[in-house]
Structures are given as structure tokens and as C-alpha cells.
UniProtKB/TrEMBL annotation:
Residues 255-259 are annotated as: ACP-binding. It comes from Actinokineospora guangxiensis. Residues 238-327 form the Beta-ketoacyl-[acyl-carrier-protein] synthase III C-terminal domain. The last Arg residue of the ACP-binding site is essential for the weak association between ACP/AcpP and FabH. The gene is fabH. This is Beta-ketoacyl-[acyl-carrier-protein] synthase III. The keyword Glycosyltransferase does not apply. InterPro entries: ACP_syn_III_C, ACP_syn_III_N, FabH, Thiolase-like. The active site is at 112, 254, 284. It holds the Pfam family ACP_syn_III. Catalyzes the condensation reaction of fatty acid synthesis by the addition to an acyl acceptor of two carbons from malonyl-ACP. Catalyzes the first condensation reaction which initiates fatty acid synthesis and may therefore play a role in governing the total rate of fatty acid production. Possesses both acetoacetyl-ACP synthase and acetyl transacylase activities. Its substrate specificity determines the biosynthesis of branched-chain and/or straight-chain of fatty acids. It is found in: Cytoplasm. Signal peptide: none annotated. Residues 106-186 form the Beta-ketoacyl-[acyl-carrier-protein] synthase III N-terminal domain.
Length: 338
């Protein structure tokens, strides 16, 4: 029997600079009520000058390794839209900072679905016996790519990192990960994008506009697509697993907008109190949002050993995906933010 991936550690990190809605209202035409009503977000955290995405990733990884009570892994998979540099990948840098030089390390670029893509890739490394243990990280610093003067986007995103440790195990044990459902539709790439900086723009011969260097999103269309694609992915995943939605104990969705999470639960017929998340406190942390929410739920005692946990996400690409996870019996560690 081939081994399966088993989650054995989780950790997260939020940079020390908290930015409230009131703080943003000092420089943007907005209010705390406007932001909270439309997004469900009251606060977020921004990385400080001199900090890189790899630094956030390392801090989250250290906590996950401590939770798993292991010193090393055989591979590092990092999901990020905001790498330290366009080249090389950031995962090898993270591995080196963790003292893991020599292990396999690579980035996954699937925007806000990135963590689920990375989790699936890591599970594949374990299933093929390429690795015995894999560190999977989602880390993003969207404060570096969002136009600070754009009210629609600037109020949504925050920086942060989350990580899990996977080990080789058996399908029936607590912590087992899978199956997965992943999908994409590149015809809608313009709904969530940064137009400048890539080969398409550089080889076009046209000078980019200033706004082309920033992240942009078509909010209403993204909202609609997110519900449709995540709901379809979840239904397909549950059919494959032979489960009904009522057998799901907890759902951890990508924390893009609280209204999306509430609507998704309603469409799926899942009681809203089974949703786990902390978007109000941390905002949309992109590829880091699911592992951050998992760690927060673990530390608040909202996840019990044996719980059937549904993970689902939607992001630029377009990309989407879902996965099932049987919650393990994890060692508790104190939350450290800075």
C-alpha cells in the first residue's frame, strides 16, 4: 500500500504592524462600517520595511515544525504570489533560512488557491515515496502589490504566513489528507491580475500604465465565480469521497470576503456555524489564508481529533480547489505574532 500524506503540525505568523479600518479611513475615502459591512474585515497586518515574504514563511514554518515536534523535512513547498524575487524561487531561500539546505524546494503559483495546490503536490511527493516529510507553506505580502490608494483592494488584503507539516502515514489515521479536486480557467485571467512585469507585457513593445504594476480585481465577477467554482469543486470532491455535506464537521475556506464564505455555506447547505475562519482579525491573506485559519481554529479548540474538515479556495488564474482532511491530534504551542 502506498503511503498517504498525514498532517502532523500547523503554525502561522502575522507581522507585528496591525492596521485597523479606522487607520485606513485616515487616508482613504472609507469608514470602519463600510469596510466591515462589505468584507467582514476589521483589521489586518502589514509587513514592515526590511521584511520579505521568506521571513514570514520561515516564522510560520518554525511554529509548524515545533507543533509537529520534528527538526527537519525532505521537501519544502511554498505557495506565494509575492516571492522575494521574480527569480529564483523563494522556497529554497526559506529552506536555507531554516537550516534545511539540500532538500527539495519549489514554489507554487496559483494565487489564492496556491496552498491547496501546494498541499496536493506535497501529498504526491509522499505518495510516490519521494519524501517522508514535507513542509507546506502559504505566505504572501500583498501590501507590496496592492495600490494603497485603491479603496476597493487596499481595505481587503493583509500580510501573513501559515504552514503545515505532512508525514507519510496510512489512509485511516487522524490527519490523513485527501482526496483533492483542482481546476482552472485561464480565459478569465484578467479578473484577477497584475498586468505588468511578465513576458507578455515586456514583449508587447508597449509601455505599461502606472496602475498595471499593481494587483487588480473585478470584484463583482470574482464574487460570482468564486461561489460557482468552489461549490462545484466541493460537490465533486464529496461525490468522489462518497460523503454528504452533512458529514462535514468543519469548513475552512479561503478568506477572501466574509460574504463569500457565508454565501458558499448557504449554497452547499452547510450550517454557517461549521465555518472556521478569522478574516475579521487578519483580512484576506491570499495563499496564506487557509493555513492561518487552520492554526487559529486549532488554537481556539474549534477542531477536534477525527473531525472531517473541508478545505476550499478560489483565486486568480482562475484557479480553484478543494480537499478533505481528517483532523489529527496535535501538540499545542503558544501563539507568537512577532
Amino acid at each position: 500500500m502506498r503511503p498517504v500524506a498525514v498532517l502532523c503540525g500547523v503554525g502561522s505568523y502575522l507581522p507585528p504592524t496591525a492596521v485597523s479600518n479606522d487607520d485606513l479611513s485616515q487616508r482613504l475615502d472609507t469608514t470602519d462600517e463600510w469596510i466591515l459591512t462589505r468584507t467582514g474585515i476589521a483589521n489586518r497586518f502589514f509587513a514592515s520595511r526590511g521584511t520579505a515574504t521568506s521571513d514570514l514563511a520561515v516564522s510560520a514554518a518554525e511554529r509548524a515544525l515545533k507543533c509537529a515536534e520534528v527538526d527537519g523535512v525532505d521537501a519544502v513547498v511554498l505557495a506565494t504570489t509575492t516571492p522575494d524575487r521574480p527569480c529564483p524561487a523563494t522556497a529554497p531561500v526559506v529552506a536555507a533560512k531554516l537550516g534545511l539546505s539540500g532538500v527539495a524546494a519549489f514554489d507554487v503559483g496559483a494565487v489564492c488557491t496556491g496552498f491547496l495546490y501546494a498541499l496536493s503536490a506535497a501529498a504526491g511527493l509522499i505518495a510516490t515515496e519521494t519524501a517522508e516529510r514535507v513542509l507546506v507553506i502559504g505566505a504572501d505580502t500583498y501590501s507590496t502589490i496592492v495600490d494603497p490608494s485603491n479603496r476597493s483592494d487596499a481595505v481587503i488584503f493583509g500580510d501573513g504566513a501559515g504552514a503545515v507539516v505532512l508525514r507519510a502515514g496510512t489512509p485511516g489515521e487522524p490527519g490523513a489528507v485527501g482526496p483533492f479536486d483542482l481546476g482552472s480557467d485561464g480565459d478569465h485571467r484578467d479578473l484577477i491580475t497584475i498586468r505588468a512585469g511578465g513576458s507578455e507585457q515586456r514583449l508587447s513593445g508597449a509601455e505599461p500604465r502606472p496602475e498595471d504594476h499593481y494587483f487588480s480585481m473585478s470584484g463583482k465577477k470574482v464574487f460570482q465565480q468564486a461561489i460557482v467554482q468552489m461549490a462545484g469543486s466541493v460537490r465533486g470532491l464529496l461525490r468522489r469521497a462518497g460523503l454528504e455535506i452533512g458529514q462535514v464537521d468543519r469548513m475552512v475556506g479561503h478568506q477572501a470576503n466574509q460574504r463569500i464564505l457565508t454565501r458558499l455555506a448557504d449554497v452547499l447547505g452547510l450550517p454557517e456555524d461549521r465555518n472556521i475562519g478569522n478574516i475579521r482579525e487578519v483580512g484576506n491573506t491570499a495563499g496564506a489564508s487557509i493555513p492561518i485559519a487552520l492554526d487559529d481554529g486549532h488554537r481556539r479548540g474549534l477542531l477536534s481529533t477525527g473531525d472531517q474538515v473541508l478545505l476550499t479556495a478560489f483565486g486568480g488564474g482562475l484557479t480553484w480547489g478543494s480537499a478533505l482532511l481528517t483532523w489529527p491530534d496535535l501538540h499545542h504551542t503558544d501563539r507568537i505574532r512577532s
